[in-house]
Write a structure and sequence with these properties.
Elements lengths: L4 H11 L6 E4 L9 H10 L3 E5 L1 E2 L5 E2 L5 H12 L9 E2 L4 E8 L2 E8 L10 E2 L9 E4 L2 E4 L2 H13 L3 H6 L9
Parallel strand pairs: 1-2
Antiparallel strand pairs: 2-7, 3-4, 5-8, 6-7, 9-10
Length: about 180
């Protein structure tokens, strides 16, 4: 995070809401089902942070009974690092995890990287395209329109390396 973790907590508490940079999920014992929408949204826009183990409803206070290891394992499996059968996301982003504390209680900070243009759109596999692809606008995960998905997919095709084109016998286009 560009700002310190404690400054981020202070900011979202003062705002009374998460925002374009940070999504907060209680996820005390089980990941919230909409976490994958947020992962998709951050991956398809500028990246962001997900904080697990805080309750937005309780003023961004630590969630009672937060099982950091269990929730971590659920996230790792869902993003596809626990085996392909558990993956919830297609075109998953790079991510990192750090254990932090808020009010002397553990929380899990997950940093989601923005996907490179050639790896977009990231989408919730079970929802398919276009219904499972999102973008982040303020504190909302907004479904991408069919036109936005089309543009991202075409951008992905245009971003293919020249070496790949040569292997399949295609010639790259050269401007001018």
């Amino acid at each position: 995070m560009d700002t310190s973790f404690s400054e981020t907590i202070d900011r979202i508490r003062a705002q009374g809401t998460d925002d374009a940079l940070v999504e907060v999920k209680t996820s005390a014992r089980k990941l919230s089902s909409d976490i994958w929408d947020s992962v998709s949204a951050f991956a398809n826009t500028a990246g962001g942070h997900i904080i697990l183990g805080l309750s937005e409803q309780d003023g961004f206070r630590p969630a009672q009974g937060f099982d950091i290891d269990g929730v971590r394992d659920q996230f790792v499996e869902g993003i596809g690092d626990g085996g392909a059968t558990g993956a919830k996301i297609s075109n998953p982003p790079a991510y990192g995890m750090i254990r932090e504390t808020v009010d002397e209680q553990p929380v899990l900070l997950i940093t989601i990287a923005a996907n490179a243009p050639g790896n977009r759109p990231c989408f919730v596999t079970a929802k398919g395209l276009p219904g499972g692809a999102y973008k982040r606008i303020d504190d909302k995960d907004i479904k991408l329109s069919a036109a936005e998905v089309f543009e991202l997919r075409n951008l992905s095709r245009r971003m293919r390396p020249v070496g790949v084109m040569r292997r399949v016998g295609a010639r790259p286009l050269v401007a001018g």
